[in-house]
Amino acid sequence: MKKIVLLLIIMPTLCCGQLRTDQTRKCSQHIPKQYELNASRLCEQIFAQIPLSFKKDSMHVLMSYQFANETANGVSNYVYSNAIYSDWQEMEDYCNDVMHQVMPSVLKEDSLVYIYITKNGSVNAFSTGAGKIFINIGLLSEMPDEATLAYIILHELAHYYLKHQLKTDLAIRTGKFDMGLLGDNDDKLEFRYTVKEEYSCDSLAILWLGKSGYNVAGGINANKIEERMELNGFYKGTNNYPNDWKTRQLEREKNIDLLNKMDKNGSIGGEFYMVSKEKFAKLKEEAKPEILRCLMSSFRYNDCIERSFKFHLLNPNHGTYLSYLMESIRRKCYCDKKDWKELFITNRYEDTVDSKGFCSKRKIKYNLFKYFDPTILNLSEKEANDIVAKFYWNGEPKFSTNEQAFEYFYTVSRSYKDCECNLSAAMSYPDDKENRDMFLKKYIGCSVTNLEFVKKLLQDSVCLSLPNKKLYVFGNFQTTIRLGQDDLKLLSNNSDSTGAFSNLNTQFRTSGNDMNSICLPLIKQTNQLDYLLFKELELLSLQHPQFTELKTNLYTLDPKFYELFRRYGINEICFISFSYFENRKAEKTLSSYRNAANEDYKKLMDKDFGTRNLDILISNVRMQNKLEIHSFRLYNKHELASNANGVKEILTLLNSDLLEFAKQTKKIDDLYLGRK
Of 1, 37, 452, 565, which has the highest C-beta tally within 10 A? Predict the structure, then answer.
């Protein structure tokens, strides 16, 4: 295990040390009303905009309504979820202002078109059949200018304008991608179909960009971003170039050649910024800490290490990047202690070697600083030339392994007088009380945050300080009406205005079991900070257990979880999700489909007749001495009795599953404790 040397190492090119300024944005407590889209109204708008050519007969009318139903349900749920920035109006307005600059005339009157920013660190954007475009926060840091953003928006608008989502949905429903009686999916056919769609979007985006007033270099940059991301992903895989790489690469080269010709002909000058250069630069920098926060909260520690190190290379004076570097390394290595000795970043990558005329791949076994490889670092050509921290490749490597990197970044953080690095250092010694407590005392000496947690940790009483109580968290209640073979989602009101979920939660608490429970849809409305933590823990509870050893302390993975448990007075959380299906006779009429999709939730759950099925998923996380973070997941399928009240039957089945969950948990825990 590492031994951090408490020396102050001033990095080359740094000026005087500075306090770390965490620019990660603070989440508001409430979701504004405009993010609660009316799913029923949105469904009708989507359906009305589907051209008559797609509704050529009664079957295609019903399939078109199904598409509108699923799209409206998915979009309304997504927009109202914690996946969207509902409190970053400046960023959202800016992206929509850029879209209005390039909006083609054929879409100017379309009221459905709008851009949202998603809390996702991946480099991606996507559009929907509802006219909504979602841009991941992770994409914004990769764009060199506003013209690039404009091209990406145009590409996504092209998908919507060309009805790609609708066409693909109808192709699937009509069996275009099916093969024979076996029903196997023809991946090659579907791939060719998708590639063709991408080609048409590229062509239309180039045409629209040429008329927009933006510089065509934006299109070149966007194609190069895609190429860079694909090449980086290829370096991480064990296979040679996938078949679609060459196809897509040829198309990118064709796009770039066309854009270069448009530029050289002088027919199009174009601006790199038409809304605001200053605002673009400001928001791009604000996005970077947010990207790292998103990657960290989704447990993507490897990606967080790579992105934070990239940002650090470009701006080594930014203390927040160092903080995320330390924490992502620490948490990654907490999940598997062997990772401390693995090579920093390059451990994930393969290189290509030539052996007797054949190319093969092998795991990289040299440290990151042996060669300067922009592909592994995912740097653009300009970024590679603009690196501030070039000293990493001068002389002997500053570090090679994750352990050495953690030690190095700790000493650098100390030079910034960053107190938080002491807490990271302390938490990196879960087995070594002497070293852990030494850093905890240093932390207490310079910080006033997390004091309650740190005091309990010094006393080794974090888990013991929590009451032996369990909190049941009611999450999703997905409801589907099955008309024959066709499924329709209930067009829910996300705020639970009918009180159906709240009623189920109340009935559960008062069913004689003295159960402590909450309903996430209500928490979402009143306490976004807790809601985000619950969703983060729910994600963790559903992941395949990746923890191989020493994974008994949830607070060691992230100290903020302790505060949530302490506030609610619990040491375990059980997450409960439902999927409700009701089978009805196949009434192949548009009115029957509409009636089913707009059924009242409360009325549906109070029914005492019909063929009804319920899937229940239970998972948990806990903060208990000597036990693993979570035990297992229970997923059961049930059929509701034909003459039973829906809510009462749901609670009966749930209580039965909870008993089974408790028995299975005890059995697994006994085996685990016996092994220890």
Answer: 565
